[in-house]
């Protein structure tokens, strides 16, 4: 056996060679697999979804005026063709001067970076190309590890193999962060220079190109000296790469920064309206708030910026009803009653996003409900007209309900017209009681004001849940539009980030709740309420119909005050009160405050818009006769003239009222019951025939209103006899 001992070293050497070959093969295979993984594994690191950038949504008017931007990241996508060449060159010069030469990885830079890392025994320097930076921003973390760097290389190679240089640069310029919540070159240009990226100068482009390395440190607002130094470095690099001449470099380096802050970014006058837009997009078009913040939509809305600004400024700074516990809140709506489009919305005195939008908060409507719940439904019957006489005296109804007039005064009886204009509580409750609660609730349901309440207090708006200012505006629209209601809306259409219209407002079917005649009667009566009734506070010189409401606590203090009404163009509501209810939240004033403020707002809008002076009577309806004011006759007198043998003709005279519709009834005093001997219309004279020479008769005149069928107070008495 010893004779083979000399072979053992050979065998051991062979085994070593064999294992070395196996290891080498494994290493080669691993290298090949690693190379293939790096070369083709980028698709595992980069997803198509990651390449879709979050983009802000614009809310704008039909005229193209941007009123607000909605976003998580303040970014607006821009085509590379809209970015000036000198701006592109600035970014390439400072970030990756060999961008157009390498294939995603710049090996010269890598060797330099690796050398410095070895010397420092740590990862201290990057050698990232623009493509690598884009890859990192798409789906990788910011930690400096070899694994992350490997993935970055994989992603960069994938991007270079699947996208052109221009596409990569476009993605990069749209994705990078510029500080202060701004992403992408377009939003950065707007934020720092108040201009689109397409209009950036060489110096401005260089300033922006220098910011992504340290956006906060190089902010032209917070650190102008550092920003200028960085900008000048970018300009120097542009000269090194041949993008600009040395002379131009010197000129641009001497320029001021030119950055300008946008003061309008802090304004909040549009917030209430946009809050409704966001809610409507979710409810009506299934686009969530989060999707709006990243989806890059253009939402075209019905806001009138003139009306919205005036309304917001007045609600913020106007005179409000005083209260016992700090600032009283308010909410206003202004709707185009022809279409249902909301022109202005104010959800609070200084509403900001995230606040309670009080346009959507329900409160007891008080007497503002009377036209909708009582008088409108009454006029839809054959039994009641605007001049039907209603009782106006304190009385008790079912369940010991005893309403009182707000001023404690009672006239005994009033016309429906007067009861509405002067907001008589007892008359309204009596009328609802006569019609029936179920009958009235049917109308409220059609008006979008459904209620579970079952008591007569519905007539006075004392409801368990109440209605929102927006609901009240939609309901009052029925009087302005021939008795028809429709839903309000803010959004005209929505476009996706490609400019394609994906949603468009479709006008819904109108529901006729009241007849055109009833609606017109209500318009004429509500104009009277504004001119001389409970809504007469303030001054507005154009056409306005409306009603006030003052809701009280049980012990008499006020808690909600309203004005609801309409012009030939708008229907609007204004509520004032506290968000909370209870003993400590009381108002020290009434509905005159929202009435005056609404008239102030309309007056200011009128200065800009020249609103109409009168309502146009719809075809096929009759005008409501003006109320007849009953006169007091105190100057009646009489005379006799000879008309035959022993016979006289008597004449009774008085001063007639200016209204020639007034009827004057002449009564003769008789024992037992006085007798009406005649009547005249619009005149101040009455003839008494066949008056005997020895007769002595006493007469008096009683004015009579043919509209209401009521008589007035008797005049002074006139006695006719021979001694006269």
TrEMBL record:
Reactions mediated catalytically: [GlcNAc-(1->4)-Mur2Ac(oyl-L-Ala-gamma-D-Glu-L-Lys-D-Ala-D-Ala)](n)-di-trans,octa-cis-undecaprenyl diphosphate + beta-D-GlcNAc-(1->4)-Mur2Ac(oyl-L-Ala-gamma-D-Glu-L-Lys-D-Ala-D-Ala)-di-trans,octa-cis-undecaprenyl diphosphate = [GlcNAc-(1->4)-Mur2Ac(oyl-L-Ala-gamma-D-Glu-L-Lys-D-Ala-D-Ala)](n+1)-di-trans,octa-cis-undecaprenyl diphosphate + di-trans,octa-cis-undecaprenyl diphosphate + H(+); Preferential cleavage: (Ac)2-L-Lys-D-Ala-|-D-Ala. Also transpeptidation of peptidyl-alanyl moieties that are N-acyl substituents of D-alanine
- Transmembrane spans: 21-46
Penicillin-binding protein transpeptidase domain ranges (all copies): 330-602
One Gene Ontology CC term in the entry: outer membrane-bounded periplasmic space
Q: Does the keyword Repeat apply?
A: no
Recorded hits in Pfam families, A to Z, give: Transgly (PF00912), Transpeptidase (PF00905)
Which key words are in the record?
A: Carboxypeptidase, Cell membrane, Cell shape, Cell wall biogenesis/degradation, Glycosyltransferase, Hydrolase, Membrane, Multifunctional enzyme, Peptidoglycan synthesis, Protease, Transferase, Transmembrane, Transmembrane helix
Gene Ontology MF terms in the entry: penicillin binding; peptidoglycan glycosyltransferase activity; serine-type D-Ala-D-Ala carboxypeptidase activity
Q: Where is the Glycosyl transferase family domain?
A: 64-238
A biological process term (GO) from this entry = peptidoglycan biosynthetic process
Q: Which family does it belong to?
A: In the C-terminal section; belongs to the transpeptidase family.
Q: What protein is this chain from? A: Penicillin binding protein 1F
Source species of the chain = Halobacillus halophilus (strain ATCC 35676 / DSM 2266 / JCM 20832 / KCTC 3685 / LMG 17431 / NBRC 102448 / NCIMB 2269)
Classification from the root reads: Bacteria, Bacillati, Bacillota, Bacilli, Bacillales
Point out the gene that encodes the protein. pbpF
């Amino acid at each position: 056996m010893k004779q083979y001992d000399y072979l053992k070293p050979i065998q051991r050497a062979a085994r070593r060679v064999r294992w070395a070959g196996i290891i080498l093969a494994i290493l080669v295979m691993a290298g090949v697999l690693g190379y293939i993984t790096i070369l083709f594994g980028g698709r595992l690191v980069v997803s198509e979804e990651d390449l879709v950038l979050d983009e802000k949504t614009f809310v704008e008017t039909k005229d193209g005026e941007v009123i607000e931007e909605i976003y998580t990241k303040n970014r607006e996508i821009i085509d590379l063709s809209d970015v000036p060449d000198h701006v592109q060159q600035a970014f390439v010069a400072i970030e990756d001067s060999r961008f157009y030469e390498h294939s995603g990885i710049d090996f010269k830079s890598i060797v330099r970076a690796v050398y410095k890392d070895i010397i420092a025994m740590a990862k201290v320097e990057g050698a990232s190309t623009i493509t690598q930076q884009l890859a990192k921003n798409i789906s990788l973390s910011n930690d400096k590890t070899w694994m992350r760097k490997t993935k970055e290389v994989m992603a960069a190679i994938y991007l270079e193999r699947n996208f052109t240089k221009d596409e990569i640069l476009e993605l990069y310029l749209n994705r990078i962060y510029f500080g202060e919540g701004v992403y992408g070159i377009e939003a950065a240009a707007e934020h720092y220079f108040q201009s689109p990226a397409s209009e950036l100068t060489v110096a401005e482009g260089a300033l922006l190109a220098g910011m992504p390395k340290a956006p906060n440190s190089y902010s032209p607002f917070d650190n102008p000296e550092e920003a200028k130094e960085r900008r000048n470095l970018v300009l120097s690099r542009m000269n090194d790469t041949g993008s600009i001449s040395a002379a131009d470099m010197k000129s641009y380096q001497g320029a001021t920064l030119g950055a300008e802050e946008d003061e309008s970014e802090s304004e909040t006058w549009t917030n209430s309206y946009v809050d409704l837009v966001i809610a409507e997009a979710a409810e009506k078009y299934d686009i969530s708030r989060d999707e709006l913040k990243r989806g890059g939509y253009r939402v075209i809305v019905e806001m009138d910026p003139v009306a919205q600004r005036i309304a917001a400024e007045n609600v913020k700074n106007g005179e409000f009803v005083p209260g016992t516990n700090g600032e009283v809140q308010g909410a206003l709506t202004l709707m185009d009653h022809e279409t249902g489009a909301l022109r202005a919305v104010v959800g609070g005195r200084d509403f900001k996003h995230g606040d309670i939008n009080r346009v959507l908060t329900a409160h007891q409507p008080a007497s503002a409900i009377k036209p909708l719940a009582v008088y409108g439904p009454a006029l839809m019957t054959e039994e009641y007209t605007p001049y039907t006489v209603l009782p106006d005296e304190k009385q008790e109804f079912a369940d010991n309900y005893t309403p009182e007039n707000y001023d404690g005064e009672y006239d005994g009886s009033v016309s429906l017209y007067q009861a509405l204009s002067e907001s008589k509580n007892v008359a309204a409750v009596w009328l609802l009681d006569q019609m029936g609660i179920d009958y009235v609730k049917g109308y409220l349901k059609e008006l979008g004001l459904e209620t579970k309440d079952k008591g007569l207090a519905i007539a006075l708006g004392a409801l368990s849940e109440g209605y929102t200012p927006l609901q009240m505006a939609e309901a009052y629209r029925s009087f302005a539009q021939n008795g028809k209601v429709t839903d309000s809306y803010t959004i005209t259409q929505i476009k996706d980030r490609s400019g394609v219209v994906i949603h468009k407002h479709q006008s819904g079917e109108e529901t006729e709740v009241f007849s055109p005649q009833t609606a017109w009667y209500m318009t004429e009566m509500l104009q009277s309420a504004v001119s001389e009734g409970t809504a007469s506070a303030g001054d507005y010189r154009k056409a306005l119909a409306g009603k006030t409401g003052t809701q009280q606590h049980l012990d008499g203090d006020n808690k909600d005050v309203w004005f609801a009404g309409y012009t030939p163009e708008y229907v609007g509501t204004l509520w004032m009160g506290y968000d909370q209810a209870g003993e400590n939240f009381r108002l020290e004033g009434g509905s005159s405050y929202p009435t005056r403020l609404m008239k102030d707002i309309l007056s200011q809008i009128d200065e800009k818009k020249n609103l109409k002076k009168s309502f146009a009577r719809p075809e096929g309806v009759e005008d409501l006769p003006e109320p007849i004011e009953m006169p007091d006759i105190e100057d009646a007198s009489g005379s006799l003239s000879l008309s035959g043998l022993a016979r006289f003709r008597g004449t009774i005279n008085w001063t007639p009222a200016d209204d020639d519709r007034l009827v004057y009834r002449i009564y003769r005093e008789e024992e037992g019951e006085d007798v009406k001997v005649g009547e005249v219309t619009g005149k101040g004279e009455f003839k008494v025939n066949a008056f005997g020479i020895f007769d002595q008769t006493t007469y008096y005149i009683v004015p009579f209103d043919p509209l209401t069928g009521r008589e007035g107070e008797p005049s002074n008495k006139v006695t006719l006899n021979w001694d006269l």
